[in-house]
């Protein structure tokens, strides 16, 4: 308030200028040294080998797509990780021209190997000082912290993982930074802006960790849990809440924590996708997995075709109908000049009418004409739009057959009806070719059928069957195209029974010959359509979570149980001629010590817990709290990053264990310091306690 | 209150009303149903197996089926009904005993719930509401009418919860007779629940957590000496761990003693196990003792539930290695499991096969040789493909295998049944291996067989010779080492767990998702599809289920509000909420196929919580939100009154309906199809 007046502010500035200008710097030399060691160990000679090493083959293709700004989907994780790697490529001026197809392939001269590997290596080396800081924040001595940093520094697997274009070191960096900044926030005494900055930094780094790999969620939830407990204690602190003015302080605290740890990460996560979608605006290899609307928003590809189509589907429109379900693959309603065989292999009969299938490639036979029953085939002027609930016929453009279904078992799914292309040849089978248009995502009852946007069910009038993609493919006689059936027991919303118009134009020719020419010529009129960011985000996120690759077993895949004992390794690279090799394998001493430390910690914790319950206080309250907090961060961090893998069905590798290992390593010096300061004093007093305690024997046996 | 009056009060508390209501409801319609439905084919058949004493394999532990079989036996069912497909008529067979047994256990649920809630809340209203919820729920009635495991399972779960709650009430009279009684009863019910289905593990977890909390508070009580605490601990270890374990093992012992004849489940088990079964070809087997050239053999994988080396006329499909004949591992006994042992050259002089010999295995039915080559195997891509190749025994050098007895030396003979054998492929050096993965439809869902380049000795790569037919050699009676009981127990568990996780949804089947269940999204069709058939549809009474859902949410809100305000957690309800969570949440992580009826144990807990929530409001005397709660509670209460009405509306679901489907205005269910996903 004193600075409120401009005059006063000026005065105070003057007085401060009068003082000598002094910078007082404290430099923790130990920290500097370990950082330097970290940098040295991670950065030294990172451009060797000049060949694709292990998963670089996988991340590399995305980096290339990024530099070319081509849209792709990677179901393994959110986009931030690829963005960070792509940033390295940008720094090195990579043009994206490299074919990432084989581990061990030599890099061509246009690939800036050094800058591609720089960012993960930097992140990996900065983890070393972070380990130091984390242990200090947990309340342990600097010697202990130095121990933690050195153990981390000398962990072979972490070194290997940091030195290549891989994401684990970046993830671990963000995880450690999140924990350190949360502890800084928690340990800071006063309500200073610096304290708030640590809180915000926690939120930001959590979002980054989750943005690099979904695995970051585990540590994020652990921190959220820790924050929830701390906040709960704050609320319960009667000394604070009873004083009415302090009540609002508590409220402020709760709100600020909620904003920084929940809302901010969510917004940032959306932000990553926003940048991702803004950067990648060109159509690319994974277009077909997305909906027509999404594809139309990308430059090139479908957008080139759909740009300028009429929006409203009218009687006489020529359309291609795409199945909304992309299982087993995206495809368009299709028919061709071939009939169903009279008898199938298993002896069942068919209608012997023209086949109707779903075809996964663009083709002139994918065109259908929306026809008003009993009327002409051209669009009237003005166009008469088709609305929800209208009854239409669908005429196949090239063969003039009408889309038809009847009570004949479908070829592959005999419980459903066969769908055929029908033309009246005066045979005994009557035409059943009327379909009701049912717009699944309508907002009004009389809604008009819109190109790309409307998701439409076609319900057969005679049998109320729904036109549906069955998911199986036809045998040789159906050219292995996908089967389309009429499903009588269709219910709810199944994507396989929903279609949308992708390409669309108003038909103008009455004559079949002219119409065929029209179908062969590309579409042209102009209207622009855009999807909102949120709609795109939701679709992309949903696709990333649901699209699954075939589970292929890998030569170096392993099970979580093998990780603890390091019963597995991964060969990252092998020189074809000189037999030089790079392996991912841990430092056996560190792994054993870490496992031992965990076991000792659990035993210590249990024995203290039980004895405290009997009101036997071996260690002071503050030490107990410190031990508890270290346990939550280190043992808890290990558990949340390790145990969930037992429930995962995907292919797992040793490097999935590294985040868990990081936290486990931190436990070693913590347990050692505790044993040193408390157990040595405690041993002679065992007689007073429960008697024989296994923990007391452990360090000396 | 004087003692006798208190006793009278207690007698009144023991209102039998809810029980009678359900008993009536269940029994009335039971005998009307003359055709059996859905899973009855399954469990009814197993009841018959017990009566006929034939060995079978099922993914659930045996107690439930044993009790069904016992009930059938007691009521004169002779075990001859074939149980072929759902919807067949029972005709003259005496099936009512089995159904009546399940129904009577099912009708115990409302009174059990009544007593539990009475203990937890000390309120008659809450208890009556709970009992009414369960008594008028169409789902519970439907599921307890038929020969299913679920009513038996739910009976034991509710029994365990009731006795646990009763035991908690005895806290201030430790080591008294009722204290011991309820403790032991809890243990007995736990073993019962686990003995029926593995879902019983969840109630064990609930009781375990409750006991841990109990012990924790005892430990904190400094008046109690460590000696006394030890007594508490040991008595619980005895009552809740050792006793149930003993009973559970006993159930299996009875199971194995009763089922002593060979039956359809043999192939799932090891050769040693099969030798126990009367009628099995290994029972008192007599065959040539040592493997010889020219013999017809079957080869079984040593992995538990490993299957026989098998081949058939079908080829590997396009794109899966070479298009040659499939070789798989098959769990059932079959002609296609037979193989002929040959020398590499075709002379079959009767000589014994020795360790290190090179042999050729010819498939007896199709005359193809066991063959491997450098194509990748269909599922385990690191391994090589194994096929059937050649015709009439002539093939190529890739058909040669080297026999090795594990732990043997050159020249050792191969003992039938007792030797562990490896088959090393001559050309590539890989070893014949069964990966345990199920092949897709083209492989008839049999188990993959590969040739593994990794020569680690695992049961997957070890085989034994099971059948051995050679007319030129004398048969010797083999007293195969009878397996120890604990070995059988372990083996049958591994087989059951494998079977359970192997139940994956088929491609075209609609898989029920756990989130469907609490909102009553979709039921399960028990019998009948068409208008003319007699239809039964398992679906909870929607009024009740949605009320349960609302009260769950309400409870959480109340606890949150109460703990924020006075930081006290509400007793009793937490136990029920925990029970609901434990019986519901784990299903989200299960990979196996799920059904609607899996929710019913969880539904019991949420129903009890409903009673509890409705009763909570008088105690919540603090200002904030009180009016809000009580108003919503009164809404709930008025909903409760609608329970009998809604039951009347929906009763045709459980008691069966004929005639048109619900979309027809003439149907009994007209206008009641509130959700599109219901199929009646």
Automatic annotation (TrEMBL), chain A:
Decide whether keyword Lyase is in the record: no
Per the record, what are the reactions this protein catalyses? Answer: a di-trans,poly-cis-dolichyl beta-D-mannosyl phosphate + L-threonyl-[protein] = 3-O-(alpha-D-mannosyl)-L-threonyl-[protein] + a di-trans,poly-cis-dolichyl phosphate + H(+); a di-trans,poly-cis-dolichyl beta-D-mannosyl phosphate + L-seryl-[protein] = 3-O-(alpha-D-mannosyl)-L-seryl-[protein] + a di-trans,poly-cis-dolichyl phosphate + H(+)
> What cellular component GO annotations does this protein have?
endoplasmic reticulum membrane
Location in or out of the cell = Endoplasmic reticulum membrane
- Ranges annotated as spanning the membrane: 21-40, 80-100, 121-152, 164-183, 195-212, 258-281, 588-610, 622-640, 652-672
InterPro entries, per this entry?
A: ArnT-like_N, MIR_dom_sf, MIR_motif, PMT-like, PMT_4TMC
Which Enzyme Commission number(s) are on file for it? Answer: 2.4.1.109
User: Where is this protein primarily located?
Assistant: endoplasmic reticulum
Residue ranges occupied by any MIR domain in the UniProt entry: 310-373, 383-440, 444-504
The record's GO molecular-function terms, alphabetically, read: dolichyl-phosphate-mannose-protein mannosyltransferase activity
What UniProt keywords are attached to this protein's entry? Answer: Endoplasmic reticulum, Glycosyltransferase, Membrane, Repeat, Transferase, Transmembrane, Transmembrane helix
The UniProt entry lists membrane topology as: Multi-pass membrane protein
Q: In which pathway does it act?
A: Protein modification; protein glycosylation
Pfam families named among the record's database cross-references: MIR, PMT, PMT_4TMC
Q: Which family does it belong to?
A: Belongs to the glycosyltransferase 39 family.
Q: What is this protein called?
A: Protein O-mannosyl-transferase 1
TrEMBL record, chain B:
Q: Which reaction does it catalyse?
A: a di-trans,poly-cis-dolichyl beta-D-mannosyl phosphate + L-threonyl-[protein] = 3-O-(alpha-D-mannosyl)-L-threonyl-[protein] + a di-trans,poly-cis-dolichyl phosphate + H(+); a di-trans,poly-cis-dolichyl beta-D-mannosyl phosphate + L-seryl-[protein] = 3-O-(alpha-D-mannosyl)-L-seryl-[protein] + a di-trans,poly-cis-dolichyl phosphate + H(+)
Enzyme class per UniProt? transferase
- One family from Pfam that matches here is MIR
Q: Which InterPro entries match?
A: ArnT-like_N, MIR_dom_sf, MIR_motif, PMT-like, PMT_4TMC
Provide the transmembrane region boundaries.
Answer: 112-136, 148-167, 179-212, 233-258, 543-561, 568-587, 593-614, 626-650
Organism name: Hucho hucho
Q: What is its EC number?
A: 2.4.1.109
Keywords of the record: Endoplasmic reticulum, Glycosyltransferase, Membrane, Repeat, Transferase, Transmembrane, Transmembrane helix
Q: Where in the cell is it found?
A: Endoplasmic reticulum membrane
- Which protein are we looking at? Protein O-mannosyl-transferase 2
The protein's matches in PROSITE patterns, at most eight in alphabetical order, are given as: MIR
